[in-house]
Amino acid sequence: MKVLVANRSEIACRIIRSLQENGFPSVAVYSRVDKEAPHVWTADEAVCIGEPHAYLDPQALLQAAKQTGAQAIHPGYGFLSQNAEFAKACEDAGIIFVGPSPKAMSILGDKRASRQAAEKCGIPVVPGEQACDSVDEAQKAAQKVGYPILLKAAGGGGGKGMRLVQNPAQLKEAFASAEREAHNAFHDGRLLVEKYIYPARHVEVQILGDGKNVIALGERECSLQRRYQKVIEESPSAGIDENIRQALCESAVKLGKSVGYKNAGTVEFLVGDTGNFYFLEVNTRLQVEHPVTEIRYGIDLVAWQLAVARGEKVKDPQEKPRGHAIEARLVAEDPNNQFMPSVGEVLELQFPHRPYVRVDTGIVQGSYVSPYYDSLLAKLIAYGEDREQARKRLIEALRETIVLGVKTNGAFLLNILQSDSFKKAQTFTTTLEGYDWPQTKIPEFVSQAAAQLGDVYTEGKMISPWQVLGAYRL
Amino acid sequence: MITKLVCDNGKFYRLVLARGPRGVWAAWPGGAAYLEKVQHFSVSENIDEGVRAPMTGRIVKVAVQKGDRVEENALLVVMEAMKMEYRLTSPFRAQIEEVCCRPGELVDLGVTVVSLKKLT
Q1: Residues of A annotated catalytic, as ranges
Q2: Both ends of chain B: CA-CA distance in Å?
Q3: How far is CA A357 from the centre of its chain?
Q4: Hey, of A340, A350, A442, which one would you mutate to test binding to chain B, going by the most B CBs within 10 A of its CB?
Q5: In this structure, what DSSP letter does residue A415 have?
Q6: From first to last of its 474 residues, what are the pLDDT tens digits of chain A?
Q7: Do the Cβ atoms of B31 and A440 come within 8 Å?
Q8: Which CA distances in Å does B98 have to B47, B60, B119?
Q9: Cα A154 to chain centroid, rounded
Q10: How far is CA A445 from the centre of its chain?
């Protein structure tokens, strides 16, 4: 089975690797700006699909599949991975879409429909209103559930098109901005309103279905988020007990079975401080943080996605999950400057090579980090026999990681991992809002070495304006 | 790329350095920074105040026109990069001298997008 990977960056590379390991020919697609990206030359074949937004263009992707004779399309995450129309278009073109059936996706992948499905299964949901197609409707819904509220995109996840609204005065502007962002990210500007629950943990269950049977592969806790983007994820959650874990897993499996779910998927919950939990949404696709589950269960979720897409049955994993895994997302954002996106050429890139640490990345030295796509550079995932061991290993791995040419959140990740609240597993969805951390201080020996480097260059063929200047600043 | 071994209080550190367009990138264990050369004279202090792009990205929306008078914190421009929106607002009560960007345009970090005249 030849598989076209309709994605880019780290997840495209990761999927292509699985395809190669399992003997499936792979096809990459790339936009004009991604011409030299690693996923292009990692795959067996690669097709240019045009402009930067072409990863969202169903026709371009289907054309690339036809042109290369690909029999299946793996959508990765983001882009068209939760677009039921695209899944249907693949089906109509006789191409296997590595995901749930268009019908199951249109129920579970849509925030409104999935809420209804969860309610039908008797799973508690966050109070809110599904249909808010105008500011007026959102206003009414917000009044009903009470501020603060969350505006969310109905058509996708990842924090795109999501806004926390504290009071009625903020709603109009937030609505317009969320709608625009949702439209840009998913080609779908529909929004919904939910009551904002806090303090709460974000706990999600990994499921895997074959269209009939659905199994749960434990949970991941992803409470540490910024701008509704996950920053650090781990499995298991240190904040829930065995009873809640079981209740969450059973709910997730029940929901999956109710629609005949086929594919890997994630059922997200908010868990309150008394163990009360609410269904949030379903991601009908592979998730960014899937490696923490893979490491604990010793499985390859992409291989399983391909297997069930070809009609194989799921079976319970042979072994019980072991130990603890923590993932940190290294992104091109400047933590010393309001997490501003950082664009540029990667001048130097060094990742750790140590046992029990996995690095998933889609860049190499010389890659251009462009403003067109999200800021994820790499995921570092550490395994430990217990949480503390995994935490220490991840810290050491991050300390060894070097990225020059774009700013990264590396120092911020280290600070979180070393914080008391993380050590004690006191992690909530609000923990990183206004998280106070000391800005990066440049050690004296570093600024001295940098100044010397300036001199070295001025002695060479570069004529530098710095030669008369001594002072550097951040 | 240049690596340098430095000794600080008996402990050796391996530094990795690379030259950027206006400064030096440096990484040490657990940290990294871009050390920019400090300019002797500041352009922005003499001429009228400009609002600069805080990142390389695309202009999504321009909310003001030349000649407009705006209050402090008024929305001037919405930018987007890496799927994140960033709102540029007026640092003070001001009159818009010049709008130097168009919706859809890609602008570089540090480029003036709107120039302002401070109103008292």
Answers
A1: 285
A2: 49
A3: 19
A4: A340
A5: H
A6: 999 999 999 999 999 999 999 999 999 999 999 999 999 999 999 999 999 999 999 999 999 999 999 999 999 999 999 999 999 999 999 999 999 999 999 999 887 789 999 999 999 999 888 778 899 999 999 999 999 999 998 877 767 888 999 999 999 999 999 998 888 888 888 898 999 988 899 999 999 999 999 999 999 999 999 987 999 999 999 999 999 999 999 999 999 999 999 999 999 999 998 889 999 999 999 999 999 999 999 999 999 999 999 999 999 888 899 999 999 999 999 999 889 999 999 999 999 999 999 999 999 999 999 999 999 999 999 999 999 999 999 999 999 999 999 999 999 999 999 999 999 999 999 999 889 888 888 898 888 888 877 655 443 333 333 333 344 454
A7: yes
A8: 13, 18, 15
A9: 17
A10: 37
**Closest CB from A373, A444, A450 relative to B26:** A450
Burial of A368 (0-12, 13-18, 19+ CB in 10 A): middle
Question: Of A343, A375, A449, which is closest to B26 when you measure between CB atoms?
Answer: A449
**Nearest-by-Cβ selection for A402 from B13, B32, B83:** B32
Give buried/exposed letters for A127-144 (b at 16+ CB in 10 A, else e): ebbbebeebebbbebbee
Contact A331/B97 with Cβ under 8 angstroms? no
CB of B18 within 8 Å of a chain A CB? The answer is yes
ipTM above 0.90, yes or no: no
Amino acid present at B46 = N
Q: Is B104 on the interface with A (CB under 8 A)?
A: no
DSSP secondary-structure letter at A90? H
**What's the CA gap between A57 and A1, in Å, rounded?**
23
What pairing do the DSSP bridges indicate for beta strands A214-226 and A200-210? Answer: antiparallel
Q: Closest chain B residue to A441 measured between Cα atoms? A: B31
Dig out the tokens for A445 from the structure.
């020996």
Q: Where are the alpha helices (DSSP H) in A242-386?
A: 242-258, 290-297, 301-309
